[in-house]
Model the fold of this input.
Amino acid sequence: MRQGSRYGYILTVYAIGIVIFTLFRVANTLVYGFGAESWPDFGGQYPYALVMGWRFDTAVSCYLLALPLLMAIIGEIARIRARGYYLTMHILTVVLYTVAFFACTADVPFFSYFFTRLNAVSLNEADSFGLILDMILSEPVYLLGLAAFAALATGYAFLMRWVFRKLLIIRNEELGIKQFLPTGWAIALAAVLLAGGFVGMRGRLAKAPLRASDAYYCGDAFLNQLGLNPLFTLYKSFEEMQKSANQPLTLMDAEEAEAVYNEELGISNEELGVGDVALPAGTNVVVVIMESMTVDKTGLLKPAGGNASLTPHLDSLMRGGLVFTQCYASGIHTYNGIYSTLFAHPAILTRHPMKHTIIPLMCGLPQQLQAQGYRTAYMLTHDEEFDNLRGFLLANAFDSVLGESHFPQEESVGTWGIPDHKLFEHAIAHCRAEASHGTPFLTTIMTCSDHAPYFLPDDIDFTPRSKALAEKMVEYADWSIGHFMQMAAKEPWFGNTLFVFIADHGAAGKCPYEISLPYHHVPMLFYCPGHIEPARCDRLALQLDLFPTLMGMLPYDYDNNTFGLDLLRQRREMAYFSSDDKVGVLDTAWFYICHVPENQERLYHWCDTTAGNQIDQHRDKAAAMRRHAFGLIQHSYNMLENRTTGCKQN
Done:
């Protein structure tokens, strides 16, 4: 051990960490690039993203090295020779960096799937550890990631062992060499390192420390996020979530938010050119919530002669029913989709709507149909306790929640329980039994096969055309829908049943914005041959509009204490949605995005992707869109807090 080697150890660890963090950034780039239809053109902006990444990696590294640096300084100034002291410092350093590298490994698939860096929302499912573990062990990509992490962690441990032996162990041949810096030099260098560490933690010398918004430097949404370090975003979002969990949501004053809500629901009825739909009393309702079925997977918007659709069965149904082509999901998680589809409330940023300690009573589709004598059931492929589904739904007018435990054990073949076609077969049997009671029914079916880890059944009459497994699973999910409708068409209750198809959310696709529009853009279809004429509506719609639009087709009075509009009688001027800590708002020309924790705003002319951020040129437009979304999200939160979400009869 030579003079200053303790300080040299800290600097060496920092340098190695920066290199590895950068390699993870390159890995994210490769996943993004190879996942696109063609390699993206970064326009010479990529090197600056790496420089920005170095700044965030340095901030994270300075936090990781804070305690080891203090130990190194104490060891140098106090002239500590004990091997155990430095071994403790070394083990602490290796453990901290290994945890950081694990977060980076987890971030690669997370970023690819959600198009946002690793954040605290990923911890929402921590109480379902068994399912998460099964998902990881069942998915080849995750196993590959774990193997890569294991190799990295092992290699890092060996490399650090060499660094430790080179810089922190006193060898026999060095016994006569000075092992410590002169006290004055030791203190002076310690002051430099401490000052550097402090500045590094802050990320800059300016008054405010480094923030996530500092990574946004150009018009490319991928590059803007690439510079972020996942440990930084995980910690900052967890910090923000903890604040929001203990503090009320304050997007807008309560009175102003209520005014926005009244403006929204006060839109006058008008003739919208779609045609009136009048279903008879007692019409059964089957709602199919399709996992990850973005519009981009269907043939809905594909030009003639373009790539073949992955969903011919769903496409055929959409040609035979009333389809809304510009419908947007409320959030990016399945629980957002279930909550908004059935209960017509928006996603409230990072908050989990179905994990309240005291379950709120809602006023949505199951409540209104149950009040008309309908028998209500919710069916899913996997554990019905996942995301607190069972408790929340049973408290909100569902007579039964039927999941994996209700089906034959031998049919459960993967992480997500039974495959879609088996769920649909059970749904047919369930609807048949419900119809035998002589009362109408509402049956909601949540599919899951189009969610990794994938399981493709091989004992069915289905042959996919695609080569990639992910595309095969879309084809299989679509085949299952066709299988379901073929079986349903043979049932006596078919002619008296409205089928509704919608997705919980879409899937990440190529998008130039900080919020992925393909992830929110979903089909919404009302299908009831003989009662609903085929029609296509290209106006803006939201997932939460399903409830009042459906109830408007039935001859019942209903209490709309929600945020949905009857799309056959009311025109939605803007669509709004949450992407964890970001809010997006769309109208026919503009796309407003706000990163809420840092109040960072952007405005795009979304029909012209080359125009870039237009916020400075159109402040009034951005303010109007912000007011609309913030007011509605705030009022939904206020209703939940004040226990006013229930129906009047509740």
Remarks:
- The mean pLDDT is 89.
- Residues 512 and 609 are 7 Å apart (CA to CA).
